[in-house]
Structure formats: C-alpha cells, structure tokens
C-alpha cells in the first residue's frame, strides 16, 4: 500500500488535496490536506465512495471524469472558471458574514496502475482562492481607474468647451480685423495671432474629441458620400504644404472601389487629415501616398486606406506607444516636430468606433505605412443622382440672389463677427440680441430668408423663440432656422432638429462652413 | 527508415474516428459555454515532424499556444492542440462569455485553456481507444507558448525516439463559436513503433468492418 505519511510530506505546503480511489471507486488514500479542509478523518474517508462523502458528487462532471479515467485511461482537468462549483469545501473570508466562503478549486483527474495491473483513479484538488481574490481585486481596481478616467474626460470636455467660447471671439475679431486697413507690420502681427489661435483651437478640438470618444459620447453620422471628391479635397488641403516641402503627394484609388458609399464623411476626413498630416510632417523627401482599395470586413463591404510615406520611420521599440495619448515617438522628436501627440489616439478611437482596425508598419530611415479599415454600406445610386442634380440646379439660381438674414445672438462680439461674415458675402443682416426681439422682427418686416438663432440668450432662449416662430400664422412660420451653439456634443444636433430647427452650426463660426450651411438649408427648403 | 503512408481507406477511418471524438468534445464545450460550439476535422494526414513545423510556421504568425498531453500504454506519444496565441485567448474568453479585452491571459484563464484542451484531446484519444479497443492512459494537460516553428520540437525530447523518426498525425480543426470561426490544429506525435501499432490496429478494424 502507499505510504500516506511520505506522500503527505511530498505534497505538504502545496495546498494540494490528493484522493486516490480504486477501480470500484472506493477511497484508498485521503491526504492530510483533505483532512484539514473537510474535517473528515482518514479512517472515516477510507473505503467509502466519494458520493457517500460528497452527496453532490454522484452524476457530476467529476464523477463522469473519474469513471472514464478508470475505464479508458482518459484524464480531465476541471478549472474554476468553467466549473465554479466542484468539491464543497470552505476557506476563511473576513469580508463575508459567516467568515467563510466556498473554496475556488482546480481539480485534475487521471488514472494510473500499480505493478500488479490494478488501476487507480487519482484526484488532485488545488485551492485557487488566492488567484481568484487577486483577479477580483484587479477587476475592482480597473473599475475604479476607469471611473476616474471617465471623470477626467468629462472635466476635459467641459473645460475645452468653456475655452472654445471666448476663443471664438478672439479668432472672430482677428478675422474681422484682417478685413480692415492694416500696415505690413500689423498684418504680420495679426498673422501670428491667427496662427496661434488656430493651433490652440485645434488642440482644444482634439481634447474635446478624445474626451468624447473616451466616455463613449461620440457617435457616427453616416450619410451618402462621393468618395473620390472627398479624398481629392483632403489631398488638396495639403497641396501647398507638400509643394513647400518638395514632397510629392499622391492619391491612388482602386477603380474597383464604388464611387459612392454610405459612411461618416466627417470622421473619415478627420482620420485621413491626421494620418496624411503626420506623414508629411515626418517626411523631408520622397513621396506621401494615399492608397485606397476594397476590403472585406467580417462579411461586410469595407475599404482599406493606406498612408505610405518615405519619412524618418519609427523605431520598433516606440511602436507600442504610438497610439498612446500625448506621446510622440520620443522626446527628441518632440523638439523637432511640434504637435500634441493626440492625433493617433483619436484616429485609433474613431476607427474602432466604426469597427475597423488601424495598424502601422515601419522601418527606420525608410518610411512608415499607416493602414486602417472602414466598413460601409452601399448607396442607392438612382436616388442619389436625382438628388444631386436637383441640388445643383437650385444652388446655381440662389447663389445669384443675396439673402435677407436675421441674426439672433446676445454676445456682441459674436454678433459683430456674424454680421461681418454675412455682409461681406453680399447678404443683408438684421441683428437682435434675444428671442423676444427676434420674434418681433419676424412678425414685423419683410420675411427673412433664414434666421441664425443662438441657443442660450437672455429673456428668451433660441429654443423657445423657434417654437414661437413655428407657431406663427402664414409662411413666416416656415422660415428656415439654423441653431448656433457652442454645445458641440453628440445628440445636440438631433435635439435641436427635433425642436423645429432646420440645421445646426457649431461655434466657433468658420465663415466658409456657415455660408455653405445657409445655402444647404435654403436648398433643402426651396419654398 | 520505411516510407510510411496511410492508404485512402486508413485515412478515412482515422478521419471518422477523430470526428467522432471531436463531436463529443464539442457537445461538452457547448454545455460549458452555454452556447453551440461547432467543431470539425476535415482531414487527417500523416507527416514527418519537420514538415509539421513548416506548416505551423506558415499557418501561425508569431507565437503559438499549445495544450499538450502525454499518452501511453500500448501506443505512446504526445497529443497537442495548437492555436495562434491570440486565438487561444479568444477561444477561452468566448467559451467563458467574457469581454474580449486585450491583455495577457490570467492564471485562471490559463486553467480554463488547459481544461478546453483537455476536453478536446481526451475526446480524440478516447474515441481512438474505443474504436480500436485498446486503453490509452492520458497525462494531465499542460500549456506551452512558443514560436510556432518550435512547438513540436519542444515535445520531442520527452519522447524516447530519435526526433528524425517522429511522425505526426496532423489535423486542422475549425471551431465555430458565437458565429465566429477560430482555426487550430490537433496533432498526435508518435514514434515509429507507435505508428506501426496504430496502422495494424486500423487494419484490424477495417477487416472487422468488412467481415
């Protein structure tokens, strides 16, 4: 027979229970650890069947595994994760009311035979409570860290938002100042001001995007888009910079890719601007190429975009940190190439938002290739073509007609800015500073072609004023209204549209974007 | 050494037996996962060890994770279930119904991987033992992580045979779980004696079937 004492000494300290049963499933060995954990003495356990000791054993996976080990020689391992309940034993747990809790175990079962051909089943019971505790603690810590990070993101979102509003005034007035008579020195100062303002705005927008992405507040706005013009636009934005750097910039679009797709154009543009901007930044000679081909993604049609450069490349050990926030390849690069290091994290988060993947390949001194995938859905072409034709026709007509515009905005700086943009574009502007005045004007004068309505105003806010206008009698009730707001949050757009507004323009106001928004509102509503 | 090849009939019998085993494993895993787990082995092939390493290098980019179980008693060898390292973690988390967070495999998940591997390998060897009427004693599962070309080599020293003489019953296995497919490999590493015994057992089985 087996020397129990020797065996116990061999496995002592390993927190390991050992049970040996013979071919008729009767216990032949019950080690010291089993005695101490179950309080069942050796002389009680020996000779019994396991189902007599543990009533739940009968018919369990353990039982089946033990029988098949004895019969066929097969082995089994039952892990805690897949079998939370194995042998009913307890461990001390100070956090529980009873001071005890069920022991988490890993149980292995195998068979062996002695010199005389007798077959035995061997059961090893391992206490993994410590590992389970560790994992639970880790999970808890992760949740706490995530909550803290979410709070940080929310704080950043609020801060960036608060900073954007006054910055809007600074930038806008600089724009207006540029339209006045200035001498060469002043114009130079103004340029520096505008450039600094622009990079500050870019940084704030990035932080806002990232915080929104992190707390899951960013959503995709998909629409039908003509792919080639979008890509050409993006390339065109970098034309001057690539000429200045004497780096050639190319677009390679696989002819097999459909001309129109349904996807989020703004986010696609954002990712491409980031990647191409980066590629140009780190390339001093050679080419930067945007290569686009079709790719199948999880049975959905998709596109693969590759931005290939012949720049400085990325060191292998820096690859892992590439998509981390506020991080450039290394501190020495930061000195040579300005930037916040937020761009790639944003790209990654956006690409993951639409369930694509972003990857990078690079050789130091030879260049880098950033690729990402994007799923899309197909566009009904006949419907789209008709819409485009109709739009183009109306646009041509209305472009030649100056519009009569009402601006409701309480902030005098913003009011001045809007007026100067619109007047410069040839339109007539009436400005008021709250909702009540806006309603008076709409009721009194010739009908306005469009109303720009700030959301937060004293006396009566934009939402209420819009409701009042919509409730008026006659055709004025249908005057197109564009909401103006610095609340650039996901869901705002839908919110304002549901409250009777026709469109939504986020601040800071950019002249080109505002003018095109005005036209698109007029075009959608030709009456 | 003699040129060992399986006849078409021998291959068919082995493929059938292995699918019987893998089918049983699938039903156990379905129960554990609380969702349907499909598994299939399209073909069983016999190959020299060196060729297997080349196949694994081609099929698995980077590191491979393997669950290994020794077996003995009549036919001696090593059984292996091999995946790309990432896919092994994915499979375990899918079976556990956990979020597919990135990160390392934890100790408890590694135990679960051992269990999944054990279910599959024991079922294959069990079907084998049952069909050919001999007992096969299985060792306990163990997880190995290595470059894909090295996994099989890691098992060779455990075996008494000259590594050059080792033969592998090589099977690609496809898992379907939560409408995702994961590819892996099941293989039995055998010495010359093992292969010879195996072939004669298959022939006996065929004879019994045809008589």
Characterize the structure shown:
The complex is a heterodimer of chains A (about 525) and B (about 210). Chain A has four domains: about 120 residues, PAS domain (Beta-Lactamase, 2-Layer Sandwich), CATH 3.30.450.20; about 70 residues, Helix Hairpins (Orthogonal Bundle), CATH 1.10.287.130; about 160 residues, Histidine kinase-like ATPase, C-terminal domain (Heat Shock Protein 90, 2-Layer Sandwich), CATH 3.30.565; about 140 residues, Rossmann fold (3-Layer(aba) Sandwich). Chain A has a five-stranded antiparallel sheet with strand order 2-1-7-6-3. Chain A has a five-stranded mixed sheet with strand order 9-11-12-14-13. With about 525 residues, chain A is α/β, with parallel strands linked by helices. Chain A contains 19 helices and 20 strands. The radius of gyration of chain A is 35 Å and the shape is elongated. About 0% of the residues of chain A have low confidence. Chain B has about 210 residues and is an alpha+beta fold. Chain B has a single domain, classed as Chemotaxis protein chec, CATH 3.40.1550.10. Chain B is built from six helices and eight strands, in the order H-E-E-H-E-E-H-H-E-E-H-E-E-H. In chain B, strands 1, 2, 3, 4, 5, 6, 7 and 8 form an eight-stranded antiparallel sheet that branches. Chain B is globular. The two termini of chain B are about 35 Å apart. The model of chain B has no long low-confidence stretch (mean pLDDT about 85). At the A-B interface, strand 3, strand 6 and helix 6 of A face helix 4 and strand 5 of B.
